Amino acid sequence: MPFCLAGLTNRLYDRRSSDHHGRVLDPAELDWRLEPIARQRNAEIQTYIDQCKKEDSKVMKLLLLGGPASGKSTVCKQMQIIHKDGFQRPEQLDYYRILIHSNIMEIFRQLIDGCSQVEINLASLQKLIRRINRKFRLAVQEGGTLNPKLGQLLTAAWKSPQFQAVYHRHYEIDLLDSAKYWYSQLDRVCRLDFVPTPQDILRSRAPTTGIFVTTFQFKNVRLKLVDVGGQKSQRRKWLHCFDDVKVVLFIVDLAGYAKKADEAEEQTNNLQAALKIFQDISTSRVLKNAFLLLFLNKLDIFEELLEQVDLSECFPDYDGENYLDPAKHYIRELFLSVAPPKRGIFPYFTTATNTDNVEMVFQACMESVLKQSTKATGLA
Ligand SMILES: Nc1nc2c(ncn2[C@@H]2O[C@H](COP(=O)(O)OP(=O)(O)O)[C@@H](O)[C@H]2O)c(=O)[nH]1
Ligand SMILES: [Mg+2]
């Protein structure tokens, strides 16, 4: 709006001093001549305001919340793939190629740190580790990142009994979720002509430190998806994003049950920490009119993890079998039980890296939201 008003003011000033014959106008004549221009401009502004109001009433703000690394940015990327033009621009692909290579080196360091944490002796691997570090430094100095030679060396390290042993205990250490995904295809990812696929992009990881907004069309509604950081330090930002939120999409890392929570958290594991945040969100007065969608995410990792870590080790109340179905339903009930009884919640199980799954779930939940929203407000 200020832009439109500035335009009007400029036009008024342009015409103030003289008419097109260069004759200086007196103030009364000036007013008389300006009136139709002002009236027309006023009408233009009113049309613009009406149009904005109409568009705003069709925009639904959807806020993504959840603990760190629960899958918020992955869901955003999926929307970019499903509802927009995905990731095709050369600079985007270049960014992800570099990010993926940096993720791979981060995993390498995490595996080394993990070995010392769980006391796996790395003595016989030291020579290889030094070689990888040296070659990587050299590659970076030359303006590159990973290359086929580094790929071979990293594959050799990955296949070593030490790295395999520490990977087996991945839930005890800090390790990016996609470690196995990257290390099982280093020959492709380290090629000099490597171009990330959509699945590679979904598997990459960069902590969100700002606020990211994606807008896209869903049926006849424009959705504005707002992604904020999940780390404790980022949560202060959440409050600023609560205005006009129609839908909160809360994402939970199901596999978090086996991860010790941050020392600063009161809860013992990441899933319990997420439960506490979810409780706060579901009872928040500011969000009481927002629809609350719950994505119980990383179902694929959760299923694998159950073979290694009993759910009852982390949730002593759980007395079911250590299988996917009873375990996931137990967790769903746990989340529903901390919300006020009348708070409508739409729970779903998801694997955010799976595009078909996200497309199907998102469609189902948004259809329910739009149906209820139409009933309540006439929107949609
Ligand atoms: N295997 C698997 N990985 C996932 C899933 N959801 C997210 N990830 C991975 O988890 C990591 C963190 O996800 P991200 O979306 O960045 O989390 P955020 O911090 O909540 O934004 C990324 O490497 C994702 O590829 C899932 O359902 N399954
Ligand atoms: Mg993120």
What would your notes on this structure say?
InterPro entries: Gprotein_alpha_su (IPR001019), GproteinA_insert (IPR011025), P-loop_NTPase (IPR027417). The chain starts with a helix and ends with a helix. It folds into three domains: 2-55, no CATH class; 58-87 and 206-375, Rossmann fold (3-Layer(aba) Sandwich), CATH 3.40.50; 90-195, GI Alpha 1, domain 2-like (Orthogonal Bundle). The protein has a six-stranded mixed β-sheet, with helices on both faces. It is built from 16 helices and six strands. With 380 residues, the protein is of the alpha/beta class. Strand 2 (212-218) and strand 3 form a beta hairpin. The radius of gyration is 27 Å and the shape is globular. The model is unreliable at 1-17 (pLDDT under 50). Bound molecules: guanosine-5'-diphosphate and magnesium ion (MG).
Outline the fold blueprint:
Layout: H1 2-16, H2 27-57, E1 59-66, H3 72-83, H4 90-117, H5 126-141, H6 148-159, H7 161-168, H8 179-183, H9 186-189, H10 198-203, E2 212-218, E3 221-227, H11 236-240, E4 245-253, H12 270-283, E5 291-297, H13 299-306, H14 311-314, H15 324-338, E6 345-349, H16 355-377
Parallel strand pairs: 1-3, 1-4, 4-5, 5-6
Antiparallel strand pairs: 2-3
Guanosine-5'-diphosphate binds next to α3, α10 and α13.
Provide the spatial order of strands within the biggest beta sheet.
2-3-1-4-5-6
The CATH homologous superfamily of the largest domain: P-loop containing nucleotide triphosphate hydrolases
Order of helix and strand elements from N to C terminus? HHEHHHHHHHHEEHEHEHHHEH
Ligand list: guanosine-5'-diphosphate, magnesium ion
Shape: globular
Give the termini separation: 26 Å
Radius of gyration over C-alpha positions, nearest whole angstrom: 27 Å
Based on the structure given, which CATH architecture of the largest domain is correct? 3-Layer(aba) Sandwich
Q: Please summarize the sheet with the most strands.
A: 6 strands, mixed
The number of domains is 3
Number-wise, the strands total: 6
Can you tell me the residue ranges where pLDDT is under 50 for at least 5 consecutive residues?
1-17
CATH C-level label of the largest domain: Alpha Beta
The proportion of strand residues reads 5-15%
What's the mean pLDDT score? 88
Number of helices: 16
* CATH fold-level label of the largest domain: Rossmann fold
